[in-house]
Amino acid sequence: MPDSEWRGIRWLLAISGFMLVAVLAFAILTGVVPYGSPGEVIKTFYSACNSGDYSLAGKLLVPEANQFLDRHVGAVEEGLPGICAAETRQGRLQKVEILHQELRGEIARVRYMLYYADGDAIEESQGLVIKHWVWKIAP
């Protein structure tokens, strides 16, 4: 095989290798960070609570919050399911609107409105932190 053909093959392999690395990096990043912003985490948390998906809702909290719920609140107020029921008014949450999110490095603060089926609306604010490359709701 002529030398120019080998160079062409090596160039093609190099480009293919780069593309493979780029695709794998994208797949890993989108798998590790399923919710791209703190506001999306808040919306997903309330949606999970509203539908009774406490497993997903719990994954969106920092580990310390889950431990606190299990040890202290859980014995008195049914833990995360009780908090979800109260926050969503037993699944009657209609919409979560993100008003503002402020990011400072690995810390965020999100202001949002909760809209309920009875027409009531409440403004809330919540802090989030990055834990293992993912935004988590912090107490």
Short description:
With about 140 residues, this protein is an alpha+beta fold. The protein has helices at about 5-30, 40-50, 55-60, 65-75, 80-90; strands spanning about 95-105, 105-115, 120-130, 135-139.
Helicity, as a percent range: 40-55%
Strands in their spatial order, largest beta sheet: 1-2-3-4
Main sheet overview = 4 strands, antiparallel
Could you say what the CATH topology of the largest domain is called?
Answer: Nuclear Transport Factor 2, Chain: A
Number of DSSP strands? 4
Overall structural class, as computed from helix and strand content, comes to alpha+beta
**What is the name of the CATH class of the largest domain?**
Alpha Beta
Overall geometry comes to: elongated
Strand content: 25-35%
Please report the distance between the alpha carbons of the first and last residues: 66 Å
Q: How does this model look, in words?
A:
- By secondary structure, this protein is of the alpha+beta class.
- The chain has two domains: 1-32; 36-138, Nuclear Transport Factor 2, Chain: A, CATH 3.10.450.
- The protein has five helices and four strands; from the N terminus they run H-H-H-H-H-E-E-E-E.
- The protein has helices at 3-32, 38-51, 54-59, 63-77, 79-88, and strands at 93-104, 107-116, 121-131, 134-138.
- It has a four-stranded antiparallel sheet with strand order 1-2-3-4, covered by helices on one side.
- Helix 4 crosses helix 5 (79-88).
- The radius of gyration is 22 Å and the shape is elongated.
Break the fold down into its secondary structure elements and pairings.
Elements: H1 3-32, H2 38-51, H3 54-59, H4 63-77, H5 79-88, E1 93-104, E2 107-116, E3 121-131, E4 134-138
Antiparallel strand pairs: 1-2, 2-3, 3-4
Helix pairs in contact: 4-5
